[in-house]
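Fill-in record for Glycerol-3-phosphate dehydrogenase [NAD(P)+].
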Amino acid sequence: MAEAPLDKVAVIGAGAWGTALAMTAHRAGRRVSLWAREADVVEAVARDRRNPFLPDYPIPAEIAVSGDLSAVVAQAGLVILVVPSQFLRGMARAVEAVLAAGVPVVICAKGIETDSGKLMSDIVAEEMPGRPQAVLSGPSFASEVAEGQPTAVTVASEDAAGGAEAASSSLAAKICLALGNESFRPYISDDPVGVEVGGAVKNVLAIACGIADGLGMGSNPRAALITRGLAELKRLAEALGGRRETVTGLAGIGDLTLTCSSTQSRNFSFGRALGQGMTPEEALAGKKSVAEGAVNARSVTQLARRLGVEMPICEAVNAILHDGLSIRDAVQALLTRPIKAESRELEPHVILPHPSAANDLQANDMV
Ligand SMILES: NC(=O)C1=CN([C@@H]2O[C@H](COP(=O)(O)OP(=O)(O)OC[C@H]3O[C@@H](n4cnc5c(N)ncnc54)[C@H](O)[C@@H]3O)[C@@H](O)[C@H]2O)C=CC1
Ligand SMILES: O=C(CO)COP(=O)(O)O
């Protein structure tokens, strides 16, 4: 059986998701402190209990919001890391310097580190050596979590592997007990890699779906992008040692369908703006909130190439965002790729030239 829930929870990162998770832990009965990087966020919360990153939902008075990292993590039994992926390394290092030994951390950023191709769990292992760690991910718009909409997520830790007893006493189980409440339902997993890859790749695919929407495309293209995008996600997860089953769970297909079909998603909306004719710079201008897929298109495709994993939709998004490929050429190139088998077993062995590929070999070569 799992032990008693962790009592005090420190949340690092007071963006929309960190704030919603702090509210979640508070609803679950935990004592909660929240670290904000921006002085104006600390001031806004002190003044009217509202965070500009999530302005529609008041923060309960019992949640202590501060810019003092040592004070926030003092006496914490669990630390939730919720800064965007490209800032996690620096933040993990800073937290490690002030956190008591043995206190576990749970990673909530969705992404892969640019250039190194490292997963967030690799970064935490490097910057917080020996510290117990888990990953939390799944279909969870911060605003809906803050509102108390029923939400299910996956929490994964390696020690959950080895059967029911291991899963029940794992770090993932303890975190589920510490954060679960009547509207927030976490599930235990022993596959952190599969969970992480799901969260990182779905943001890139959400940009692709947003682009299609912005172009005025209908439901067929979206379903095709989601399904073939899932095939890409699965290939990368498996290449990294993740499990197929995880990809069809909350952190895979669950988050993919959520993010690829709602303008609530920052990534989908970013893609939509591109499809409507904005440049990436114009679409991101003035935004303080993150669209993780914009950066992670690069890191996901860098990693996929290194591993020899084919991810044509993610490659197309990366080429549009970072290599100046026009959306028109990217769409044509995707649609005129060679004919392949859908089945995983046959897929590597069946490659037929697309009937119209000869019309535009140059674009076809790019993805
Ligand atoms: N918002 C959502 O609905 C969800 C977000 N996530 C993930 O959570 C992570 C955090 O996203 P949000 O809370 O939505 O962020 P946000 O877009 O609401 O806010 C931006 C965050 O980035 C932080 N930041 C900016 N520059 C920084 C720096 N140099 N060092 C450290 N932190 C810096 C800000 O302090 C702020 O916390 C992302 O990886 C995102 O994909 C996951 C699930 C849901
Ligand atoms: O990860 C999310 C929901 O699960 C949030 O998606 P966006 O970052 O695209 O808004």
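KEY FINDING: Confidence is low (pLDDT under 50) at residues 359-367.
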